[in-house]
């Protein structure tokens, strides 16, 4: 049975999952990893969701304010052995609900075109491609999405 909790970036399970995510991204991002990694500090994340199956943390996600009406989805990850089980979808739905409860109208995010599964996942969850924003404008590997809540 899956259990979803709300927490913050000081949660030890979140920190461990982010370490696994960073190890994965170091491989897929290649030479660009240092650039992307500078924008992924978890210390600024006060809205974190963790998924547990049988008491074990198997996935995470977070958001931070982007502007007055939007949040930016960050640090989405599920363990390899639980992919395809709906964990990421439950995490994303929980983040969207939380953002909506706080009065935000939309979510934005950036992912890499090399993360093909992530791109398909966001499209499946009704995220629409948008112009690259902020630090990602000139990054060939970046793709940005938005979803109205």
From TrEMBL:
Keyword line? Acyltransferase, Transferase
Q: Pfam families recorded for this chain?
A: Acetyltransf_1 (PF00583)
Q: Per its UniProt record, what InterPro entries does this chain match?
A: Acyl_CoA_acyltransferase, Bact_Acetyltransf, GNAT_dom
SUPFAM superfamilies xrefs: Acyl-CoA N-acyltransferases (Nat) (SSF55729)
Checking Gene3D superfamilies in the record gives: 3.40.630.30
Q: Cite the N-acetyltransferase domain residue spans from the record.
A: 3-149
The name this protein goes by in its record: GNAT family N-acetyltransferase
| Organism the protein comes from | Psychroserpens algicola
